[in-house]
Specification:
The chain is of the alpha/beta class. Helices cover 41% and strands 13% of the residues. The chain has one domain: NAD(P)-binding Rossmann-like Domain (Rossmann fold, 3-Layer(aba) Sandwich). It has 7 helices and 7 strands, in the order E-H-E-H-E-H-E-H-E-H-H-E-H-E. Strands 3-2-1-4-5-6-7 form a 7-stranded parallel β-sheet, with helices on both faces.
Length: 266
Amino acid sequence: MSQKLEGNILVTGTNRGIGLELVKQLAGTTGEEAHIYACCREPDGPRAEALRDLTSKHPGRITPIQLDTSDEDSITTAVHAVSKQIGAGGLNLLINNAAINKPNSPAPLCTTGKKDMMEVYETNVVGPFLLAKMFLPLLRRAAERDSPEKNKGDEMSCRRSAIINVSTLISSIEKCPETFPAAQMYPYRTSKAALNMLTRCQAEDFKIHNILVTAIHPGWVRTDMGGEQAPLSTQDSVLGMLRVMSSLSNKDCGMLLDWQGNKIPW
């Protein structure tokens, strides 16, 4: 059953694309007591102007946070900043959206080097790993405060305490033969496959705390990364993703789903 998201929600990579749209729709649809922590590398920089405009349109609902997911010190600073503000409620929802793709698509083997592989892995896998690890006390606090009865019998939900790792269809090893010709993207593919394993590990590790962990593919979206030929707008993708998040429960923990709620094979 779909339920409105609420509580304290943190989203990474919010200066543009899917991340910015997530903040926009969350600010417009969540309850009055919900608060969104919108993280990006330079919240005061020129590339975050749209985020600042959005923040001003929803006074008291959005807090921009400086965060570079490839920098452990930056993550530590961001976690401390959020912890000071978040209060007794804890963190209800962590959406690991920030990601990079190097080199430029289609990123074939001949143009891909070690530096590309390592930089993409650091941002797309290590960043979400560290964020989940450092935010675990706040996620546990939220899980402990909310009772299963409030979630209509489900112990886990995105309204209670959850991590959503934004993954991709092209992370699927089973589907690689059909998706590889259109987008080779060695660093991006392998990093997102690793993110899927991180999702599975966290799902097993955190279920004792009643923290839901699920990976979601947003679809092929018209963003700087997705390109102009992508069939989905950010609005439609995020609308679907939030609908899926709102309906997640125990049975979805550790799964890879698409923006319409369909299961994607590993």
